[in-house]
Write a structure and sequence with these properties.
mainly alpha, 6 helices, Serine Threonine Protein Phosphatase 5, Tetratricopeptide repeat, single chain
């Protein structure tokens, strides 16, 4: 079993079995799972996990940039724009100036 497969198995276990019999609600674990799928180029699984995380923790700002960038790389500019715009609004509401700047830059780059 390679490193990526081991990490994926571990993250899947965490998201489905912690605490015993219940999925974790820790957004960082779900984010890690989405990013692992993204790194393995399992984009459908990554998107589904980003969407699950967004439903679980809509204020978790990092998902918007990472998912938006992934969607852009897949040629899904409209979907990428929607994720980046939602992230920008979320970052502004939360007072996260740094993340808002990154999301605004990503939106600007998407339009070029």
């Amino acid at each position: 079993m390679d490193k990526g497969t081991k990490r994926l198995a571990y993250l899947l276990k965490l998201t489905r079995e912690a605490p015993p019999g219940q999925a974790t609600t820790d957004p960082f674990v779900w984010y890690g799972l989405a990013m692992e799928y993204r790194g393995l180029e399992r984009f459908g699984d990554a998107l589904a996990t980003f969407e699950d995380l967004r439903a679980l923790a809509p204020g978790y700002v990092p998902i918007y940039l990472m998912c938006g960038q992934m969607l852009e790389s897949m040629g899904r500019k409209d979907d990428a724009r929607a994720w980046l715009q939602a992230g920008l609004e979320t970052a502004k509401k939360g007072g996260d100036v740094h993340a808002a700047g990154e999301l605004a830059s990503a939106l600007e780059a998407l339009e070029q």
